[in-house]
Amino acid sequence: METPARLTVDLGRLREGRPERLQGSLPASLLEIDDLEQLRPAGPLAYDLEVTLLPGGEALARGTLRLPCQCVCRRCGRDFLAEFSEEDFCETLQIEGQITWDLTESAREGIILVLPSYPICGEGCKGVCPHCGKNLNEGPCGCAADGDSPWGALDGWAPQGE
Ligand SMILES: [Zn+2]
Ligand SMILES: [Zn+2]
To answer: Looking at per-residue confidence, does 1 or 112 come out higher?
Structure first.
């Protein structure tokens, strides 16, 4: 068994006015988000943070979190890969004798907040036809193009054969 990686800051290294860059990744297994059926992590959670010691003994961690996910489009059912990111992750800690600052749980919560509960493969996804079930991203189906018009059904109708 591998010991799970944690995202920790060595507070002893922090000096006021000298931000520490913290880059790396956490195994996706740590996120425990396998219970979302429309979405599962397709790689580690990558972080790129800058940790600063503020006057008054406060530490500030700020930066980005990124997580690639394999998703199922809620409109058309297609599998697609997407990267979700928290561009303005921000956490503070009042230092009161701690040696390390464990940001693992904050990072986990931060990325979960930006994961969509309704993933869509693209803004332009046309979904599936409610009548025949055809994926409309692959082309129009034979059903009415305009459901509101009484003549809509005729627009899609064409004589068969030559
Ligand atoms: Zn779609
Ligand atoms: Zn149709």
So the answer is: 112
Q: Which pLDDT tens digit goes with each residue over 80-102?
A: 999 999 999 999 999 998 999 99
Write out the residue range of the structural domain in which residue 135 sits. Answer: 126-162
Q: 134 C-alpha to center of ligand 2: Å?
A: 6
Say how many Å lie between the CA of residue 151 and the centre of ligand 2.
15
What DSSP string runs through 21-38? EEEEEE-GGGG--TT-TT
**What pLDDT was estimated at residue 32?**
78
pTM for the model stands at 0.79
What is d(CA 62, CA 110) in angstroms, rounded to the nearest whole number?
Answer: 11
Q: What is the 3-state secondary structure (H, E, C) of 70-108?
A: EEECCCCCCEEEEEEEEEEEEEEEECCCCCEEECHHHHH
- Ligand with smallest separation from the Cα of 133: 2
Ligand 2 mean position, distance from CA 156 (Å): 10
- pLDDT the model gives residue 159: 54
Q: Are residues 109 and 157 in the same domain?
A: no
Q: Are residues 107 and 133 in the same domain?
A: no
Q: Which two tokens stand for residue 134?
A: 């055809």
132 and 162 housed in the same domain:
yes
